Amino acid sequence: MAQSKLADRDRTRSQPLTLAALEEYGALSGFEVPSGDFDPEGAWNQTYRIWMVASGGLAPRPADVHYRGFLEIARKPSADGKAIALEVHQSILQQAPAVHETAVEMQCARDELCTPRSWTLAHTVLDGRVKPMPEARVEQRGVLADGALRIDGGRGSAPRSIDLSDGPVTSNWSLFDAVGRLPRKEAPAVEFTMLQELDEVKPSQRITYRGADRHTLGGNAVRLHRYQHVGRGILPYHYYVDEQGRLLVALGGLRAYLLDPNARQLHEQCLARMAERAKP
Amino acid sequence: MDRRRFLKAGALGAAAIAGGANAAVSAPAVHTDRRPNVLLVITDQQGLDTISALGCDHVRTPAMDQLAGRGVSFACSHSTNPLCSPARSSLFTGRPTLETGVVVNGLPIRESIPNLGQWLGREGYETTYVGKWHVPQSFPATMPGFTVIPAGLGGQGELGDSAVSRACEGYLRNRTKSDPFFLVASFLQPHDVCQFVSMHTAGIDALPFEGIEGELPPLPANHQFDPREPEKVKRGRKVSWSELTWRYYLWSYYRMVEMVDAEVGRVLDALEGSGQAENTLVVFTADHGEGRGRHQMVTKNYLYDEAVKVPLVVSFPGRAQEDAQDNEHLVSGVDVVPTVCDYAGLKSPPDQRGRSLRPLLEGKSPEWTEMVAAEVQRDGRMIRTERYKYIVFHDDPVEQLFDMIDDPGETRNLAETSGHAGALEDHRKLLRDWEARLDVAPVTLPAPWQKPKARGGRAKS
Question: Residue B390's domain spans which residues?
Fold first, then answer.
C-alpha cells in the first residue's frame, strides 16, 4: 500500500479511538478503577469526564487539552420498585468560549432499556464570563406513552407529537444505565429507537454483547465486558462494563466518556478559569 | 424612530461599513409588506448527493427530506471555492473569493465588503449567528454584523452541533421582538470526516464493528480517474486505501450526515413550533463537498464535482415552489445573498456576482447565466457550462475538460482531444472574461501559505 500523504498533526488523530489508544495517549492516567460492591439495579451516581480526539480550548489543567466536559447520571429506583428516576447533568465546553449545560429529570420504566416515560429538560448557554444567556434557554417537557412521543417546549413552542409505536424506545442517557444490566452472553442484538437528548428520533439502533477481555486502564488491569452499539445517525459506540455492572468507559466516534468521580470538580475548576480569563 | 430617520441612519451605516471603493451606496428600498424572516442553515463538507429524498440510498435524512419537500432543490449548485473559509466568504457576501480576498482558510473578508448580517442588520433585521463562522475565526464570541450565541467545537461536530441546534431552538422560542430575524445555524458535521481520515490513514484490515458489512456502500462508479491531472490535483490525493477501508469510510461519512440531519431537524422543528415558519425564508446549503472516494479523493480543496457541488434547498411557504427539483440552472454560493435580499425587499450589496434565485423558485424560466465559476488553492479555476467543465491551474500546463453530459463522473479528460479544441478555447475565454470583470482583492497570506512561487494571473490563451 502506498504511504499515506497525510501528516499527523496531532497524535490523537493518528489511529482509531480504542481503549489501548486512550491508554497510550495518557487519557487514562490516574484512572481510578472502582472497587467494592455496585448494584446496577439499585441507586447510584456516576460522573464521566468527556474526552475528545481534537484538542484545544480551555481545560481544567493545561495538560487536559482534550477535556470537553462532564456527564453526571444519578439513578434512583422508586419506593415501589416499579420505576426509575434518572437525573442527568451534562456540561460541555464550547470553543468561543462558552458552556452548554443540560439538566434532565426522567421518570423511566424499570425495564431492560430504562425507557423514559416522562421528563423535563432544561438547556442553558453560559457565555464566556460563565453568565447565563436567557435568550438561548430551552425548557422542555416530554411524555412517551401509548406509542407516541409528545414534546411540549413551553412558551414560544407549539407541542408536537411523533409516532414511536414501532418497538422499544430509549434515550442516549438511559443507555448509561441500561448497558450495566444487559445480558453477558451471546444473544440477538437488542434493537430499539433512540431519542438522542430526548427529542432527536434515531431509529434502527442495536446493541450487541461482544464478550469480555482484560484491559489496562490507567495502568491497572481490569476485566471488562464490551457492548457494541451501531445505528442510524450515530457513529458506533463501545461500552465497557466491569464485573459489577458499572459502565467505566463509553467510546464512540471522536469521544470517550471516562468514569471519573472528580469530573465535576475538574469542570468547576475549568469554569473558574474561564470566568477569570473573561475579566477585563 | 420614524421612517425618514431610519433610512438616513441606514445610509450612514452603509457608508461606515463599506468604506473604500465601494462606499457609495444609497439606502435600499424597503417594501411595506411584512418582511420575511430568514433562516440560513449551513452544514460543513456535505456533498450535493447526500440527501435521501434526492436519491442517495446510503443515508436517511428525514429533516433535509422534509425541507426538500417544502421547497426547491438545486441539482447544479456549486461552491465558489471548495474550502471552508473561502466558500463561507462568498455565501455571506455574494462575491467570489478573488474579490473577498479569502483565498485560503483563516483570512478575513475584505474590509470594504459587507457581510449579509451587516447588510440586513442596517435594515432592522435582528441578526444572530450560531455555530461555525471561520472567516477568519472558527467559533468567535463576536463577529461583525451579528449577535453571537456561542456554540460549537472546532474539529468536533459530533459533540458541538447539538449545542448549535439547542441554541437556535432557544433563540426561536424566546424572541419577543417583532423585527424580522436573520438567524444563521452553522453546523460542523459532516466535517468530522476529516478526523476520520486522519485516524485511518493506515487503513483497516478488518471492520472494527461487527455486523455492518452488509451496510457498507459500494465504491463509487468514478473511483478510478484519468491521470491527466494538474499537479495540485494529484497532490491532493491523500490516501491509498483498500476497498474495505474506502467503504468503511463511506459508511462512517453517511452516519455523520445523518447526525447533522437530526440537528437540522431540531432547528426546523423549533421554527415550526415558534409560529414563524410561514413567514420565514429557509436556505439550506453547505460550504463545500467531500471526496467520498470519487477519483480516489477524500475531503475537499479541489474542483471535481464531489468537492465543488453542494446541496442548495430553498423553502418559503406560499412564495416558492414546493417539492421541486431544478436540474437545469447553474447556481452558486454567490446567489444566496441576492436571493435573500430579493425576498427581503432590499437592494443587494454592490457588485454582486450572483443572481437572485427567486424567479427559479417561483417556477419561472428567465434567461439564465451560461456558466458558473469556482476557484481553489489560489490559482485553480473552474468554469462550468451546461455541457462542459473546464479546470486549470495557472502554473500547470495540464488542463482538464470534461463532457458533463456524456461523462458526469469526470473520468475522461478531453482537453488534449482534437475534437474538443473549440470547446476548450471557448472555456478559456469564458474564464479570462470572468476574471477580467473582477475587482481582485489584495491578499496578504498568513505565513504558512507564503511560498516563493511565480504565479500567473490569467488563464492561458
Answer: 374-449
Three-class SS of chain A: CCCCCCCCCCHHHCCCCCHHHHHHHCCCCCCCCCCCCCCCCCCEEEEEEEEECCCCCCCCCCCCCCEEEEEEEEEEECCCCCEEEEEEEEEEEECCCEEEEEEEEEEEECCCCCCEEEEEEEEEEECCCCCECHHHCEEEEEEEECCEEEEECCCCCCCEEEECCCCCEEECCCHHHHCCCCCCCCCCCEEEEEEECCCEEEEEEEEEEEEEEEEEECCEEEEEEEEEEEECCCCCEEEEECCCCCEEEEEECCEEEEECCCHHHHHHHHHHHHHHHHCC
pTM: 0.92
From the first residue on, what is the mean pLDDT of each consecutive set of 10 residues in chain A (280 residues)? 37 86 89 94 97 71 76 97 97 93 97 97 95 96 93 81 90 98 95 97 97 94 97 97 97 94 91 89
Tell me the pLDDT tens digit for each residue of B13-28: 333 333 333 333 333 3
Give me the number of domains chain B comprises.
2
Please indicate if any CB of chain B lies within 8 Å of the CB of A188. no
- ipTM of predicted assembly, 2 dp: 0.94
CB proximity B164 to A under 8 Å: no
Residues 82-101 of chain A whose Cβ lies under 8 A from any Cβ of chain B: 92-98, 100
- State whether residue A24 sits within 8 Å of chain B by CB: no
Residue extents of the structural domains in chain A? 16-275
Q: Which residue of A has its CA nearest to B143?
A: A96
Q: Domain for residue B21, yes or no?
A: no
